[in-house]
Amino acid sequence: MKRRSALAVFGAGLALTLAACGGGGAGTGTDGGDGGSADASDITVGVAMPTQTSERWIADGNNVKAGLEKAGYKVDLQYANDDIPTQSQQIDQMITKGDKVLIVAAIDGTALSSQLANAASSGVKIISYDRLIRGSGDVDFYVSFDNYNVGVQQGTSLLTGLGLKNADGSEGTAPGPFNVELFAGSLDDNNAQFFWDGAFDTLKPYIDSGKLVVKSGQTKIDQAAILRWQQETAQKRMEDLLTSAYNDGSTVDGVLSPYDGISRGIITALQNAGYGGSGKPMPVITGQDAEIASVKLINDGVQYSTIFKDTRKLADEAVKVASALVEGDEPEANDTETYNNGVKVVPSYLLESQIVTKENVTSALVDTGYYTQAQVDAGK
Ligand code: GAL
């Protein structure tokens, strides 16, 4: 897929001046090989990632850094321990140091407006990485996945796991009703609402028909949300749900979880309450990110599904966009409608995600080289 738009032609003069590139492909991405022009090596790209407690963000950071270096850029990669002031400070420093483009996966999507205003006034370009930065007109581009569809996939896999739907999309034969509980992500992360909406829209007809029963009655996103996507917080909420809604001998049949770390917290709470033992099967539990520990849990029949988002492709996309912005080109978007950040609709490039269950762990994750078989077997 060629990302160059017609605007590249329009901007060619500018691009030549800025990048002084010898060939048409210089600096256009991770696969050019000729991206290491003299100018690229003078340019530092700042990469601000939220946390190292989740392996996905470590992989994202490493992949983005490797891609940028391959394209010839210097890279300033920082992690912020899920602490908002730390991330704001890191971004301020990147601007002060003269980084030309920032790739930012925000902790709190609404907390960076003043940093971005500074960046914009210094001519620094901003790429919002996976999580949309809200409330700022200074976000130049957004790279992510189709986040509403991720939620649809989570809801769908809960339904197939329970037998209410078949893998081919047809209605399943399980009669229900099934007791389910719903979890959402961190409300300061724009993605959380998208995942929730996609999943809820998918589950709602079954809730309305009575085939799914949210026994706790907690069907609002703010009741279901888990601040900072924390495993321990999810474990605590699941424990509370079990105590308050399932102390009458009833059992949980399914749990909608938006992220593998949250799923692991839910699983711990359920195991402590005797689920997964004799007579009390583990509920159908969803997830996201295909984190290696959770892939093992899926293979072991403990977690039902995850959503695989190939972060290598996301990193490639971020590198392409960074290169285009450096060259004064307009990066190619495939969505210019969905992601309104409250100030503007941010042009976006959205990738597709995939449901993974025990049936396709190998084809989705091993055959594609995302993990080795040994990693999958070991769960690390
Ligand atoms: C979201 C991201 C998910 C998951 C979650 C927790 O923003 O889209 O894939 O990683 O954060 O880290």
UniProtKB/TrEMBL annotation:
Domain Periplasmic binding protein: 45-329
Compartments in which it is found: Cell envelope
Keywords from the UniProt entry: Signal
Keyword Signal assigned: yes
InterPro entries: Bact_Solute-Bind_Prot2, ChvE-like, Peripla_BP_I, SBP_2_dom
CDD domains named among the record's database cross-references: PBP1_ChvE
Pfam family, any one: Peripla_BP_4
Keyword check for Plastid: no
Protein name, as recorded: Multiple monosaccharide ABC transporter substrate-binding protein
Source organism of this protein record: Kineococcus halophytocola
